[in-house]
Amino acid sequence: xxxxxxxxxxxxxxxxxxxxxxxxxxxxxxxxxxxxxxxxxxxxxxxxxxxxxxxxxxxxxxxxxxxxxxxxxxxxxxxxxxxxxxxxxxxxxxxxxxxxxxxxxxxxxxxxxxxxxxxxxxxxxxxxxxxxxxxxxxxxxxxxxxxxxxxxxxxxxxxxxxxxxxxxxxxxxxxxxxxxxxxxxxxxxxxxxxxxxxxxxxxxxxxxxxxxxxxxxxxxxxxxxxxxxxxxxxxxxxxxxxxxxxxxxxxxxxxxxxxxxxxxxxxxxxxxxxxxxxxxxxxxxxxxxxxxxxxxxxxxxxxxxxxxxxxxxxxxxxxxxxxxxxxxxxxxxxxxxxxxxxxxxxxxxxxxxxxxxxxxxxxxxxxxxxxxxxxxxxxxxxxxxxxxxxxxxxxxxxxxxxx
Length: 403
What we know:
Layout: E1 5-7, E2 11-15, H1 18-22, E3 34-36, E4 39-42, E5 47-54, E6 61-66, E7 75-77, E8 87-88, H2 94-98, E9 103-105, E10 119-126, E11 131-147, E12 152-166, H3 168-171, E13 200-205, E14 225-226, E15 228-233, E16 236-237, E17 255-257, E18 264-266, H4 268-284, E19 289-290, E20 299-301, E21 307-308, E22 311-312, E23 317-321, E24 327-330, H5 332-335, E25 336-340, E26 343-346, E27 348-350, E28 359-361, H6 363-366, E29 370-374, E30 379-382
Parallel strand pairs: 2-29, 7-12, 17-28, 18-27
Antiparallel strand pairs: 1-4, 3-11, 4-5, 5-6, 5-11, 8-11, 9-10, 10-11, 11-12, 13-14, 13-30, 14-17, 15-16, 15-23, 18-28, 19-20, 20-26, 21-22, 23-24, 25-26, 29-30
């Protein structure tokens, strides 16, 4: 791994993840085990990605894949993908219909994965380049690992995993070197304390209007939304029009979770008030404000905020969620970012006066906590910052997991 890429301090656990959905035949793990993928962060693009192997066991291909919670399908570059077990999906087939294939694609070159005729085409979208294209739908084996929270138990081949084959153009700019859930999750230094027992939950909500680049009228969004009711700074409500936190008839508004946005983006009205109130609270704590550093609107002298287990000692920011006393608390490690020596900034950005979504909760605010997306129950479970427990996601290295 290059120096610009490190194991990230972020773990996602998906309940009934795409693996079980995408496989044509049902795939079941033993009880009390979870699927585990290592998640890494590209320090240049600030994007999160994972690595897995696909293809027949004799000639697997290593895949680096961007983690995009809003993606409609799994896709990757098949230019160097070689596998005798790969099968394309024909136009009009049941597999094509289930994957919402809408076009037929062909290829005039030598047949290979990603280059076939009369093949089902599904849309693949690069959110960094805002590039959309139809790509060949196929299926193959994917190698996964299971864990009991302590160590790697077994490796499995998931058969008939569906994905689309991207071309070189669409993968440009993406990071990389070229489930199931429910716990337990044991984080060093403790080998007996299951972090999943501390989870609080909030409903996942559905935006009735799709946010995908291509969709049919009446389609709901595939992205993950939660219901933020209020924002508080050190217990004081940030005052703004609460209508911005709900969807209007066109699906505009609300709060979504994104792993492709590095820092949380807020509607201008929310952003300006948040910055104003945070600066006021920081002043009370004798934290000195300094000249802002783009794209951030408020920066401070980091020497005036002592370091704690949870980062710089700055005012706490709470996202008040649906559910009794449910709060997504942001301590200094998640609310601030060090931009240069002795200068830290409030790690939120202005999302504009007319954004599609009022709050886009970005990767920096998600780091060092466990998130469990329970799609069967339509709820999000999450832990507090693991730094509170004197641990972090980067400490989670089950034995036998490749670094």
